[in-house]
Design a protein that fits this description.
single chain, 665 residues, mainly alpha, two-stranded antiparallel sheet, disordered C terminus, LivM-like
Length: 665
């Protein structure tokens, strides 16, 4: 009993972090209607500034730094960290979130994901990827309860965050600005009539949310140290807490956060027991938030509150694709030429671009055409890749049967994740998909029982005796493998065009535009969503298998959540509503040809994540149709200009009517 109670109290420290992040998420959603997936990353920056000041007296900025002669006192370092959080909140609000406040949910989700990618990459560049130890702001000690020594630091942390959450509750409940913020969550016009600017209310909420999260991370990082990946993704359990509270009640956020932290801590105790199954010892703590999100959204997804706004902007336009033989042949010839005229690292970069194009195409199917936001495409690809390892190395299933069966594994997983989409869409669906991606990564990919630490080998593909492997001797990127990838990609693009231009594609667009109208016109919305998720996951699964073949073995680092989000970034950057956008995304994608050039020619490979994140922010704000969409619009504009300035076509001229004689009076 004593050990049980100790672990419950230890979990209060994690619960305190969830209180800070969850309360901030609620406050920002109340003020702006945006679910900020970057909440953890934003809170992490100020904590890193504080930790670096305490470590060696260096004040780190996004660009440049100041080195003090001696380390500042802990209190001063903490105030400086909070000041940077204050500035970060203002910058993110006015430059990033403010322009998309009335944009479609897709643009809001993409922008917040872009901020997450950018800040995570910036932290890695400025502070390093390794764990940083953080000095505790609180005294360490213990108290005796029922004969058990319990740590006081976690209890004090939880008490501080509960008090701060109570202050936020009092602000929303008893101040005129807080009441106006709550009014704006229902109807922005009501806040305007009260004499408040919704924009200023949103700025206040964003700043308070970032500072609240920064305090939580400063306190919590003394327990685990600072790690850019872990703290960025702590937003996932915080989102689970937010949904339990139905995005409304701070009291429920506090209670749920403490319970979730305590429960996760108890799981850490139980997995050490000899009777606990070995296959469930890794990543189970991340399955719990996913299960919570799944249950909450499935049970009461349609009853979750939505926010009123003064105006909305429609999603980017979608053009029905048509298979045009001449452009298709030109693209294939260019692909063959690019593969034939390159070798080694650069051919591998071109091949990887083709594979990333398929991952981006899976986003085009699901998000561009069906309007469903998924952040789990990388997890679907990884599931297929790991299944391919088992099928080729352990079971000896030949190519291409192993490729198809592995992609079907991803398809089944995608259809499972699609079940909540029957009741929800938009940002709520993005929450469950990122929770699913994190659960799959931690519970499956990082599970040494299922995925050995030495890697998952994948046998080379052969067809009719031909070796289609990627390597042979000193040749690290064989042309046979690259052409195989090109053929597979061409087949999948052709299938997508056939589907998108047929009845299924029209059903996708109808559901994307208005689900109720689609249902009233006789379209089975649930079946359509299921088909969309299945096709998208299958394409992602094929891409994951090709990634496996190209590397010869897979590890957990091959399909992290951040890798999947980077593909989303380039997919939106290229244009998430067209095949052309997917091609552009492949060229710009991680480990693709542009990345290869940045690393090999300009020595900027380490800046790729930062560049892609900033590019995604700019694209989502200024150019929602992406590079391909903008190019298509420019071509259409030129054609209109040329048609207007061309010579008029010869038309028969009717003979003039004879003049009438003037009437006489």
């Amino acid at each position: 009993m004593g050990t049980f109670l100790q672990f419950v109290v230890l979990g209060l420290g994690l619960g305190a972090i969830y209180i800070g992040l969850g309360t901030g998420l609620l406050l920002v959603h109340r003020a702006t209607g945006i679910i900020n997936f970057a909440q953890g990353a934003m809170a992490m920056w100020g904590a890193y500034v504080f930790a670096q000041l305490r470590l060696d007296g260096t004040l780190v900025f996004p660009i440049g730094s100041i080195e003090f002669d001696r380390r500042p006192p802990t209190e001063v370092a903490a105030l400086i960290g909070l000041a940077t959080a204050f500035v970060l909140g203002l910058v993110v609000h006015y430059l990033i979130f403010r322009p998309v406040r009335h944009a479609p949910v897709l643009a809001q989700v993409v922008v917040s994901v872009a901020v997450m990618i950018t800040l995570q990459a910036l932290v890695v560049l400025r502070f390093g990827p390794n764990n940083i130890d953080v000095a505790s702001l609180l005294p360490e000690g213990s108290i005796s309860v029922l004969g058990t020594d319990l740590p006081t630091r976690e209890i004090i942390m939880a008490a501080i965050m509960v008090v701060l959450a109570a202050v936020v509750w009092a602000y929303l409940r008893f101040t005129r600005a807080g009441v106006a913020t709550r009014a704006a969550s229902e109807n922005e016009r009501a806040a305007v009539l009260m004499g408040f600017s919704p924009d200023r209310l949103a700025a206040v909420a964003q700043v308070v949310a970032v500072m609240l999260g920064t305090v939580a991370v400063m306190l919590g990082s003394s327990l685990t140290g600072l790690n850019p990946d872990n703290y960025t993704l702590l937003v996932v359990p915080a989102l689970a807490v937010l949904l339990v509270a139905r995005m409304e009640s701070i009291a429920v956020v506090v209670v749920s956060a403490l319970l979730l932290g305590a429960f996760q801590s108890l799981i850490g105790l139980l997995v050490t027991k000899p009777w606990w199954p070995q296959w469930a010892q890794s990543g189970l703590d991340q399955v719990i938030p996913f299960a919570v999100v799944m249950i909450i959204l499935f049970v009461q997804g349609k009853r979750l509150p939505s926010r009123g706004s003064l105006q909305t902007i429609r999603l980017p336009d979608v053009s029905i694709p048509r298979l045009k033989p001449v452009p298709a042949v030109i693209l294939l010839v260019l692909g063959v030429a690019a593969l034939s005229l390159t070798s080694g690292t650069y051919r591998f970069g071109v091949t990887t671009s083709i594979i990333v194009m398929l991952l981006a195409l899976s986003y085009v199917v699901l998000t561009g055409y069906l309007g469903q936001i998924s952040l789990a495409q990388g997890a679907f690809a990884g599931a297929a890749g790991f299944a391919l390892s088992k099928m080729t190395s352990s079971w000896g299933i030949p190519f291409p049967l192993s490729l198809i069966l592995s992609a079907l594994v991803a398809t089944a997983l995608g259809m499972l994740v699609a079940l909540p989409a029957f009741r929800i869409r938009g940002a709520q669906l993005a929450i469950i998909t990122i929770a699913a991606a994190l659960a799959i990564e931690r519970f499956v990919f990082n599970n040494y029982t299922l995925s050995p630490p030495e890697g998952n080998p994948i046998a080379d593909a052969t067809l009719f005796g031909l070796n289609l492997g990627v390597r042979e001797g000193r040749d690290l990127s064989r042309i046979a493998f690259s052409l195989t990838v090109l053929v597979i990609a061409a087949i999948l693009v052709w299938v997508f065009i056939r589907v998108a231009s047929g009845d299924t594609g029209r059903a996708f667009l109808a559901v994307r535009a208005n689900e109720r109208a689609a249902a009233s016109s006789g379209i089975d919305v649930r079946k359509t969503k299921l088909i969309g998720f299945a096709i998208s996951a299958f394409i992602a699964g094929i891409a994951g298998c090709l990634i496996g073949f190209s590397r010869g073995q897979l590890s957990a680092e091959s399909f992290t959540v951040f890798a999947g989000l980077q593909v989303l970034a380039v997919a939106y950057l290229g244009g998430i509503t067209s095949v052309g956008g997917a091609i552009v995304a492949g060229v710009l994608g991680p480990l693709g040809i542009v990345y290869t050039l940045l690393r090999g020619v300009f020595d900027l490979g380490e800046y790729y994540a930062l560049i892609s994140g900033l590019g995604l922010i700019i694209t989502a704000i200024l150019n929602p149709v992406g590079i391909a969409g903008a190019t298509r619009e420019q071509v259409a504009w030129v054609r209109r200009k040329l048609s207007r300035s061309g010579p008029p076509s010869a038309q028969p001229v009717a003979p003039a009517a004879p003049p009438k004689e003037p009437s006489r009076v």
